[in-house]
Amino acid sequence: MKSQYLKLITWAMFILVFVFILFISGCLNNEENKNKTTENTEDTNNTIISEKDVKIIKSVHVGFENLTPTGKLQIDVGDIYVYNVWDNTINAIEGKKGNALSNSKIPNEICDPAEADIFVYVDKIERINKSDYYIVRFEEAEASYTCYTKEEHDFTETKNTFIYRKNVIGINKDKVSSHIFIPTSTDAQKPKTESDKKYSDVHRRINQVTSLFYFPDWITCLDEKTKFIIDEVKERNGKKEGYYSELTVVGSEKVNGFDCFKVEQIYEGYSETYNQKNRYLFYVDKNRRIIVKMENYLHAQGGHIPMQKIELKEIKKSQ
User: Fold this and answer.
1) Torsion sign over Cα 274, 43, 295, 65
2) pLDDT tens profile 41-79
3) 220 and 237 Cβ atoms separated by less than 8 Å
4) How far is CA 135 from CA 102, 166, 186, 211, 317, in A?
5) Which positions ≥6 away from 207 have C-beta within 8 Å?
6) How many angstroms separate the CA atoms of 311 and 281, rounded?
7) Binning pLDDT at 50, 70 and 90, where does residue 96 land?
8) CB neighbours of 140 closer than 8 A, spacing ≥ 6?
9) pTM of the prediction?
10) In which element (H, E) is residue 19 found?
11) Quick one: CA torsion of 158, 156, 303, 162, rounded to 10 degrees?
12) Distances 179 to 104, 118, 241 between C-alpha atoms, Å
């Protein structure tokens, strides 16, 4: 049950960020995009929903008129990006529920954060559907962690692991916000580990670094004064859902030698059955316009619990 809950939360987090990135893509044509209507849309289960079933109740966009290009994305064939992933998802979820290591009669659990290095390869440029795409490959990675379960006065330790899946995507060379998925081998779906260690649970997960390469066009429009707000409420099949997002450049900072814009995003997504608030910090290299560091904090218990941190350690060249 817990693993299913964890999977649902992980997918929900991914979808929230992914939808946000897709929505704000196109910094040069925001007014056009805002006023454009579509005939169909898709829900998270890829079910086509007629536009007549979706009613826009509220749509507020502030600050987009000030977005103009200030840089250009730079990724090169032969680049190898080495990211460190620190994953505290389980503890953040437990913290939100408010029963981690409490005196509740329900078994409680707390886990060490999982950590792994993930390698990203820019393999080549390939012509697809009359456009040139960078083919970017995310290698599978194994991140082990230990959980401690409390029952009355005793603790039980279990060894577990996250397997971050191998992914391959294509990034449009001329329009960086446009990307495609490249199918990979189905054998990666099996919960196996590279090591000889035995784990109680093996959870296959979306590769945490992949979302950093879904480049939104605003990443090329940043300056020291960038700030914009989106406040959307829809009614879908009679049920209300919406999100609020406020993104602000709050300063500059060096991260592992990269001179970065420090960008804060406050995000809240909600429906009749779901509500989640997050605070993100993105560190965007001013020259390459890649995300060098991302921190994700889950709002819980009146504060913010660190949920995930991803940091670029270095960029290497293939031999």
Assistant:
1) negative
2) 444 333 444 455 788 999 999 998 888 999 999 999 999
3) no
4) 48, 13, 19, 15, 15
5) 118, 138, 140, 141, 164, 165, 166, 167
6) 11
7) low
8) 163, 164, 165, 166, 188, 194, 207
9) 0.81
10) helix 2-24
11) 0
12) 47, 20, 26
Q: Examine the pLDDT at 232 and tell me if it is beyond 60.
A: yes
State the amino acid at position 166 in one-letter form: K
106, 99 in Cβ contact below 8 A? yes
The amino acid present at 307, given as its one-letter code, is M
Burial of 33 (0-12, 13-18, 19+ CB in 10 A): middle
3-state SS assignment for residue 113? coil
Give the CA distances from residue 293 to residues 20, 75, 139, 176, 282, in Å, rounded to whole numbers and listed in that order.
Answer: 18, 16, 18, 19, 6
Closest CA to 274 of 3, 5, 69: 5
**Phi and psi torsions of 153, nearest 5°:** -110, 10
- Burial class of 208 by CB neighbour count within 10 A (0 to 12, 13 to 18, 19+): buried
* Sign of the torsion angle spanned by Cα atoms 63, 69, 70, 71: positive
- Tokens 């189905």 correspond to what residue? 186
Q: In which band, very low, low, confident or very high, does the pLDDT at 24 lie, cut at 50, 70 and 90?
A: very low
Question: Where in the chain does DSSP place strands (E)?
Answer: 40-42, 48-50, 54-62, 79-87, 108-111, 114-128, 131-138, 141-151, 154-164, 167-172, 179-181, 201-205, 227-236, 239-255, 258-271, 275-285, 291-300, 303-317
Sheet holding 141-151, edge to edge: 108-111, 141-151, 154-164, 201-205
pLDDT (average), residues 128-157: 90
The number of residues in the chain equals 319
User: If you average pLDDT over every residue of the chain, what do you get?
Assistant: 81
